[in-house]
Write a structure and sequence with these properties.
By secondary structure, the protein is of the alpha+beta class. It is built from 23 helices and 30 strands. It is elongated and about 120 Å long.
Length: 781
């Protein structure tokens, strides 16, 4: 080979190399730009953002009420597991068969769409993937070639950064389904009245086809077009292997089934009240139970309608007693049609409770050992000059037990008990029990307090009844599921509440006679108390056991009276109907008394702890923590037992009127009760409080754990003792387990009692250092 030939070949080879380098650089330049564009930061959250409607859900997360979003649309985002698998597969089959395999843009679909568009000389296919549609919903790109290119570009970038399931979930939550429905959950609720998780194959196929042309395919407007689109989606699912041919045929033959379903609007009063809180979070979970709420609303509306306009409104609460959580809350009979305004929340309206407050008067008297459930009260005329309480039926029943007086809701015995207890004590107790409407001093309400000479709110009084049902522990009602609960406060002893259970237990009225709904099996044991306000303006019922508390109010928003507004006739049937509709919980309906009651021999005539002079006795269960120093004073000896040896005679004495009625003699520290027998006065049996001593004076130190004293008695090593400070129960001391008392400023009365009812009492004072001289001078006593 000649030198010239070799030189030419070398020159040619160098030229090839230079051209290859130039071509490589020309080819790699755009690729580098693409790589740089793909790697460039992207505002991913903006593409995954969903403008959600605020939701109020029940305790299980089911929708109760919703508010339109900022765009006046319904949109209820759901996680992918909360969406029917049928809808997921139908959407993939109809919109993007190769979704799991492409990188945001489906090249095969692009070529197919281009061929179809050229062949038919019009746009028949857009080749948009789900990723591209997610980008389109976020960017609002125009329907143009430039817009498509931008969608494709952003879709590829999005697909590199986000998991496929996240993109699919975002599409299902942002796709338009017609009307003002965004996302599959809103469409499922509107067209089928159910969550997206519960869609059948036919329903899912119908919804999956709507986003292609939401207006034209709306099943409420054009059923034929919607059916044809559903058939197409089902065929695509069959071709993709998602369903069998038999399933496809069955779904294709089903009716469309789409109808206008109102979106859930249960508990509207509560929803409006919680709207500011709901604005802070997408889904606000409440303690309500959807089925219970729906049934309660239906029963309230039907019950009020039966009065033909004589009674215009009602409200109801259903509460889980152990948890103090609201299961149903009905603020009015009809949110839109109630006379005087259905938007008025009657659960919060202040109305007169009538006799519904009586149980708390009896409770305070029992707690203060001023009443026994068995003792006799006089139901007769009662005159206080300007005030003369009468029974509802203006009839009197003579001697009745305290239990009968409360169970039959007799007014005179209730006023007698309040007079004995003091309306100041009862007023203070009701305030502690959450009745915030008792703003005036106790004297303003006077002896009429127990008969409802005040105003209360249904939800607050219901919380007080929950306290009774929960054996004395009070907590405000819970209606929102997530906030931390404040600890329970004990307002009454378990024994007192057990006594009230026995006093208020009554069978519900006959269902057939009262027109109530049929009972589900055996009706559990239940307590109930009704109330009727003066002038027949309000009717109430509270019904409870260990499982549930049901509170009901009936009346008119404008306060108009009606002779039919009687608690036992108007409110009790509704409360019973609601109670009977509640599901069984599997928990005991009645409390276990345990050791909180004790057997006591009481006089058969007076119902008070018997003395040796009471000839006829019977055994009764009384609260274990009650003092037994009030004993029968009806029977007394008329001839001395000593002296001439004559037989002792027993006389009887009864008060002449109901005013100031009390059959008891207070034995004080000298009283004692023998469980097998009777009280004998003057026997202390060695019980004596040693610390603090009577009329002791203490000065607070302010040191941690320094202002406490150990309570001591003469029988600490032999007996259990119950201790009371200012007539309120402190606790029980045991041998080798003393009780410590935290000192607080003031003058105090300390009492202790053995299990047999023997008591002792001392008084002592506690002062801060700057006022210690006041106690030293005796001014404090």
């Amino acid at each position: 080979m000649s030198f010239r030939r070799v030189r030419y070949l070398g020159w040619a080879w160098q030229r090839v190399i230079r051209r290859w380098r130039a071509g490589a650089l020309a080819a790699l330049g755009p690729a580098a730009l693409v790589a740089l564009g793909l790697a460039w930061p992207m505002d991913v959250p903006r593409y995954l953002e969903v403008q959600a409607s605020r939701e109020m859900t029940d305790r299980s997360g089911r929708l109760l009420y919703a508010f339109l979003n900022e765009g006046e649309q319904w949109c209820f985002p759901r996680a992918l597991p909360e969406i029917s698998p049928y809808l997921v597969r139908a959407t993939l089959a109809a919109e993007d068969q190769r979704f799991q395999r492409h990188g945001g843009v489906d090249a095969r679909a692009v070529l197919r769409a281009a061929w179809q568009n050229v062949a038919r000389r019009r746009i028949v296919s857009g080749a948009s993937t789900l990723s591209m549609q997610v980008v389109k919903h976020a960017d609002r790109t125009p329907r143009s070639l430039a817009g498509k290119v931008r969608q494709a570009w952003q879709a590829v970038r999005l697909d590199l950064r986000v998991e496929k399931d996240v993109i699919l979930e975002t599409y299902l939550n942002t796709a338009p389904y017609g009307l003002n429905l965004v996302g599959c959950e809103a469409a499922a609720q509107r067209f089928f009245g159910k969550p997206a998780a519960e869609l059948t194959l036919a329903e899912a196929a119908l919804l999956a086809g709507l986003p292609k042309a939401p207006g034209a395919l709306n099943p409420l407007r054009d059923g034929r077009a919607a059916r044809a689109r559903r058939q197409y989606v089902l065929r695509r699912m069959l071709e993709e292997g998602y369903i069998t041919e038999a399933a496809c045929r069955r779904a294709a033959n089903e009716p469309l089934g789409a109808a206008w379903h109102p979106l859930p609007d249960l508990a509207p009063h509560l929803a409006l009240r919680l709207k500011p809180l709901a604005a802070q979070r997408r889904r606000l979970q409440t303690t309500l139970a959807r089925e219970t709420q729906a049934v309660a609303e239906r029963l309230v509306a039907r019950h009020v309608a039966a009065f033909g306009g004589e009674i215009g409104n009602a409200a109801a609460l259903v509460i889980d007693a152990p948890a103090a959580s609201v299961l149903a809350r009905v603020g009015s009979a009809d949110f839109f049609e109630t006379p005087g305004g259905g938007q008025v929340d009657a659960c919060r309206a202040a109305r007169s409770p009538g006799s519904a407050l009586k149980p708390f008067t009896y409770a305070v008297a029992l707690e203060q050992s001023l009443l026994y459930p068995t003792e006799m009260l006089l139901d007769a005329t009662l005159d206080y000059g300007l005030y003369g309480p009468e029974n509802f039926d203006r009839r009197y029943h003579g001697l009745v037990t305290a239990s009968e007086g409360l169970g039959r809701s007799l007014n005179v015995p209730a006023v007698t008990v309040l007079e004995r207890t003091g309306y100041e004590r009862v007023h203070a107790f009701l305030r502690r029990a959450g009745l915030t409407t008792l703003l005036r001093p106790a004297g303003h309400y006077g002896l009429g307090l127990t008969l409802g000479s005040c105003e209360v709110r249904l939800e607050e009084l219901a919380a007080a009844y929950v306290m009774l049902a929960h054996l004395g522990e009070y907590r405000p009602l819970q209606v929102v599921a997530w906030p931390a609960r404040e600890p329970a406060r004990r307002l009454l002893s378990r024994g007192t509440c057990l006594a009230l259970y026995a006093m208020l237990e009554q069978p519900l009225p006959d269902e057939a006679g009262a027109g109530l709904v049929p009972a589900r099996g055996t009706t559990p044991r239940v307590c109930w108390k009704t109330g009727t306000s003066t002038g027949h303006r309000d009717a109430w019922t509270f019904l409870f056991n260990r499982q549930y508390v049901v509170g009901v109010w009936l009346g008119n928003n404008d306060g108009r009276a009606s002779r039919r507004l009687v608690g036992v006739e108007a409110a009790l049937p509704l409360a019973a109907a609601i109670f009977r509709s509640l599901p069984a919980t599997g928990e005991p309906a009645w409390p276990n008394p345990g050791h909180d009651l004790k057997a006591v021999q009481v006089c058969a005539a007076s119902g008070l702890p018997a003395t040796v002079w009471c000839r006829a006795k019977k055994e009764a269960l009384l609260p274990r923590e009650q003092y037994l120093s009030r004993v029968c004073d009806v029977h007394y000896p008329t001839v001395a037992a000593e002296g001439d040896g004559s037989e002792t005679a027993v006389g009887e004495r009864w008060p002449g009127s109901a005013r100031g009625w009390d059959l008891a003699r207070v034995t004080g520290a000298a009283g004692a009760l023998s469980f097998g027998g009777a009280v004998a006065a003057g026997r202390r049996e060695g019980l004596r409080i040693l610390a603090p001593s009577d009329k002791a004076e203490f000065i607070l130190t302010g040191e941690p754990s320094g202002d406490r004293i150990r309570l001591r008695s003469s029988v600490d090593e032999q007996a259990s003792l119950h201790w009371y400070l200012n007539d309120s129960y402190l606790g029980r001391s045991e041998p080798q387990r003393p009780l410590l008392l935290a000192l607080e400023p003031g003058e105090h009365k300390l009492t202790c009692m053995t299990a047999e009812g023997v008591t002792d009492q001392v008084r002592f004072g506690v002062a801060r250092p700057d006022v210690a001289m006041r106690f030293r001078s005796g001014a404090g006593w």
